[in-house]
Amino acid sequence: MLGGFMGLHGLDLNFLLVFEALWETRSVSRASEKLGLSQPATSHALAKMRSLFDDALFVRVKNDMQPTPRAVEMAQPIQQVLEVTRVQILSTQPFDAARADKTFTFCMTDVGETAYLPAIVEEIRRTAPDVRLRTVSPIAAKIEETLESGVVDLALGYFPDLKNQGMFQQNILRTSGFVCLTDKDNPRLDGGQLSMDAFIGSTHVAIKTEGRSQEVIDKTMQDLKIRRRIFLVVPHFLSLLSLIPHTELVAIIPVDVSLAFQDNPCLVIHPLPFLSPTVEVTQVWHAKHHKDASNLWLRTLVRRVLQHR
Asked: For residue 302, which of 94, 127, 110 has the smallest C-alpha distance?
């Protein structure tokens, strides 16, 4: 019976799980916590179900969300479907990383490949020797599509445009700020320091990548009415390794990517001459893969590696 109205009304497993959590907890906040969703995502799912069934399903009575008669009718068949699904379909063996023969695909910018990927690779090689990795660039219009389809297992970086609360999970891994990069003999340095006057008077290299973090520092400088004299625009941070030495050029780079430059004897990393903004580095995965054992293993490893760097 339930399968019939699932087809008619376009219900999917996520809606059934939200219904079950609301039935058991009688609370949007507790249901959200149980499912690992945000409250807006749970509320959105409830609103969608209300529209599909033309019934409130759960209504607030004092401090609880009480089921309507229609919800009471639906509860048992929904629980039966979920039980069958869990036992016969979703029941899986734990992911055995040490024996796994699998390829994972990350979506990340060159900042992620430079600053985060080496530590991730090291840990995966240590714990899962037959696992292989692949990275793709974060083309904004395709991130949600590739996560949903499973082409990408995990997106890693700064993704301010991923607003689909009901579709994605997200963990904040770390925060990153910005610093300046110059040649060690840059004549504008005063006692080895980069002052605001030197910063404004310098000729700059601007980096415009597929990522969005540079927009944050650009917005901060716009708000502070700080204008750079930009001579060159490049798409990759690592090109600075050959562009900055023996020149008077200055570049702004994320703190995390500065690790790639710190051992170069020709280069010096300076604090910004103004308060640096920060960006949240997150890992993002699709809700449909939230319970997948291999995806859980991967994002747990990434969180452990990056939060303890």
From this structure: 127
Q: How far apart are CA 214 and CA 225, in angstroms?
A: 16
pTM > 0.90: yes or no? no
Q: What whole-number percentage of the chain has pLDDT above 70?
A: 91
**Cβ-based neighbours of 83, under 8 Å, separated by 6 or more:** none
**One-letter identity of residue 245:** P
DSSP codes joined into one string, the chain: -HHHHHHHHT--HHHHHHHHHHHHHS-HHHHHHHHT--HHHHHHHHHHHHHHHTS--EEEETTEEEEPHHHHHHHHHHHHHHHHIIIIII--PPP-TTT---EEEEE--HHHHHHTHHHHHHHHHHH-TT-EEEEE---GGGHHHHHHHTS-SEEEE--TT---TTTEEEEEEEEE-EEEEEETT-TT-BTTB--HHHHHHSEEEEE--SSSHHHHHHHHHHHTT---EEEEEES-GGGHHHHSTTS-EEEEEETGGGGGTTT-TTEEEEE-SSPPP-EEEEEEEEGGGTT-HHHHHHHHHHHHHHHT-
Cα 308 to Cα 299: distance, rounded to the nearest angstrom: 14
Q: What angle do CA 88, 93, 95 make, to 5 degrees?
A: 140
Q: Which long-range contacts (CB under 8 A, 24 or more apart) does 215-220 make?
A: 216/158, 216/277, 216/278, 216/279, 217/178, 217/252, 217/276, 217/277, 219/277, 220/274, 220/276, 220/277
Pick the more confident residue, 140 or 222: 222
